[in-house]
Design goal:
It contains six helices and 40 strands. It is mostly beta strands. The N terminus and C terminus are likely disordered. A hairpin with a 7-residue loop joins strand 38 and strand 39. Among the domains are: 92 residues, Immunoglobulin-like, CATH 2.60.40; 102 residues, Immunoglobulin-like (Sandwich); 92 residues, Sandwich (Immunoglobulin-like); 98 residues, Sandwich (Immunoglobulin-like), CATH 2.60.40.60; 113 residues, Immunoglobulin-like (Sandwich), CATH 2.60.40. The chain is flat and about 170 Å long.
Length: 794
Amino acid sequence: MLTRNCLSLLLWVLFDGGLLIPLQPQPQQTLATEPTENVIHLPGRRSHFQRVKRGWVWNQFFVLEEYMGSEPQYVGKLHSDLDKGEGTVKYTLSGDGAGSVFTIDETTGDIHAIRSLDREEKPFYTLRAQAVDIETRKPLEPESEFIIKVQDINDNEPKFLDGPYVASVPEMSPVGAYVLQVKATDADDPTYGNSARVVYSILQGQPYFSIDPKTGVIRTALPNMDREVKEQYQVLIQAKDMGGQLGGLAGTTIVNITLTDVNDNPPRFPKSIFHLKVPESSPIGSAIGRIRAVDPDFGQNAEIEYNIVPGDGGNLFDIITDEDTQEGVIKLKKPLDFETKKAYTFKVEASNVHLDHRFHSAGPFKDTATVKISVLDVEEPPVFSKPLYTMEVYEDTPIGTIIGAVTAQDLDVGSSSVRYFIDWTSDGDSYFTIDGTEGTIATNELLDRESTAQYNFSVIASKVSNPLLSSKVNILINVLDVNEFPPEISVPYETAVCENAKPGQIIQIVSAADRDLSPAGQQFSFRLSPEAAIKPNFTVRDFRNNTAGIETRRNGYRRRQQEIYFLPVVIEDSSYPVQSSTNTMTIRVCRCDSDGTILSCNVEAIFLPVGLSTGALIAILLCIIILLAIVVLYVALRRQKKKDTLMTSKEDIRDNVIHYDDEGGGEEDTQAFDIGALRNPKVIEDNKIRRDIKPDSLCLPRQRPPVEDNTDIRDFINQRLQENDVDPTAPPYDSLATYAYEGNGSVADSLSSIDSLTTEADQDYDYLTDWGPRFKVLADMFGEEESYNPDKVT
C-alpha cells in the first residue's frame, strides 16, 4: 500500500510540475492564411519554486513542393512563453537550408520558404530554433530542433528505365504463354496519395498480347500464332499513375516481340518429278544433279536429310545434303554406259532431321519425289578386253617370236577400227614390238633372265577415226629361265678338321647356289667326284634338302703328316638340261682340345680358343712395354745414386788437404790437378786451362786416356803425374789446394770466403802467424801481398 501511494505521488509531481509534457500533435498545415494554426511554443524560464506548465508543442512543419506563388510561402511560426510581445526576444534559425531556403522573422518568429522546393531532390529539412534576449544576447531557453517536410504533389510521370524491351516467344504457343514483364518507376512519394501508384495497359499490340495492369507481365492473347505468317510484333505499353484515373501522368515504352521457330512444317518438294541428263563419261563420285525440298521453318528445324528409296538404278547413285543450301546433291557411284542402259528412274525421300513430338499428329514430316536420269551418249576411247595382260617367254628366245596379243574394241555406235602401239616411255630399250592392226606382241631383243626377270610396259589403243581418243593397258612379261648355269657351293670353300676327329663326324655343312633360279625352285644333289671316292679321307653326306655335310672317314689326322686336304665335291641341279659343277673344298688339319675347340691352326687360331681379341693383345703388349720401361728407369736411378755417393757435392764444406810425392811448382801451385778426380775415379776430365797462370802460348788440349773403372787411386795419381811431367805449360812448383770448411773446434774456424769481408784491403792476415808453423807459408804469402799493396803507400 505504501509503495503504491509513493508511485502515485511521484507521477503527480512529474506531470503537474512540468517535467514531462505530453505531445499534442498539431493539425496539418494547409494554405490557410491563419498563421497561428502552425505554431511552436518555446518554453520560458520560471522561478525554481513555481510550477510551470510548458507552453510549446512539438510538431512537424509541411511545405508544398513546386510552389509557384509570387510571395514567399508561409511555413509556420515559432513562439516562446517568455515573449510578452514587447520586442525583447529575438528568434534565430539554423540547420538545413537556413537562410538560403528558409527565413525567420526575428521578432515574430514567422518562417517562410523563399524558393520553390522539389521533394524528389530533398524530401525534408532539419532545422534548429532558439529564442535569444536582445539585450543580453543570451538564450532564453535551450535550442529546439524541428523538421520541415516537403509535401509531395504528382509532378513525375512513370518511366520505363529498361525500355525499349526485346522479347521472344515460341510460335504456336497457347493463350497466356509468358512473354516478358515490364516495370515503370514513378519518382513521386508512394506513401502519400496515388501519385506513385502505376497501372499498365497496352496501347498497340492487341489482340495478340495482353498485360497485367498491376504486375506488367505480358502474355500471349491468341493461340497458334504462326511464325511463317508473321514473325515480328511491336507492342506499345503505357504506365499511368494516380491509379489510372483521369489527370494522372503516363509514360510509354515499346516491346519488340519475335516468334521463335518450331518444327511445325514438314519438307515439301515443289514438284513430283525431277529430270536429269548425265553424260556417260561422267567420272565416279561426280555430282550429276541437284534437287530441293522446301521447308518454311528456320535453322535446325529446316535441316533436311535426303535418301534414295531402293529401286531401279538406285544402287548406281548416291545423294547427300548440301549443308549450306539444304539441297540434295546426287552423285555417281558406278560408271554409266549409254550402250548398256540409257535411262534410270528412282525415288528420293526428304525428311527433317530434328523432329518436334508436339506436332507428330499433324502427319509424317517427309515427302517423296521421283528422279529420272537420262544417259547421254559420248564418243569414248577403245576398251581393252582385260585390265592387265600377263605373258611368259623363255630367255634367249629368237627375235621376232610372238609371245601374246592384246585386244581393244570401240563400243560406240558406228564403231571405228583400232590401232595399237607401245608406249615407248615404258619400254625405252625396245625389247618388244607390237603389230598395229592385230595387237600381237613379239620379241625385239634376246632376253636374259639373269639380267632382267620381268618386263612391264604399256600398250596404247586409239581410234583410227579419232586418234585423240585412246586408252592404255599394262603388259607384264615374265622371262622364264633356261638351265644354263651349273650350281656352285656357297661360301665357305675352306674348313678345318681336328687332329683327334673320329670317323663319321660332320665337320662342315655346305649349301649350293644357282644363278638360274632361286634355291627354293631347284633341287640340288651332292656327291664326291669319282677320283676322290677311292680310299677317301672325307666323304659327302647329302641331306636331301639342298645341303650336305662333310664327314670324316679316318680316326684322327696328323698335322705333321699332312696339313691340308683338298676335297672335290660334285653338285647337280634338277632342271633340264642337268647342269653340274665340281667344287674343291680346302680342309686344314688343326690342333683341338677334347671338346673339339680349335687351339692352333694359324696365327688367328692360336688366340681364338682363349678368346683374346686384337685389342686385348695390344693392351697386353703395352703393359709389357710399360713394365720394361719402369725397370730400365729404376736401374738408371740406382746407378745415378751410386755415382752421387762417390762424388762430393760442391756444397761440401769439409777441407781437404791433398799430398802426393810429386815435385811440382811449389806451394802456390793450386791448380796442378782437380781434386774431384780423387773423389770419384770414374770421372773423366777434359783438359782445362790453368787458372793460376796465363800460358805464354795457346796449345791444343791434351788427350787423356780414359781412366778405367774401379782403378786404384794410386794408379790414377801416377797417371796424372806423368801427364804433368809431359805438359810444357805446367809450373815447376807444388800446389796446396784448400777447400770448404775445416770443421767445428778448429782454431782457424772457417776458411771459407763466404764470410770474408768485401775487399782484401779490409782483411787483416796477421792472425795467421799465431796459428803455428803449419800456416807459416800462408802468413808469409798474405803478409807479403799486404806489404806491396799500393793503396797503403803514403
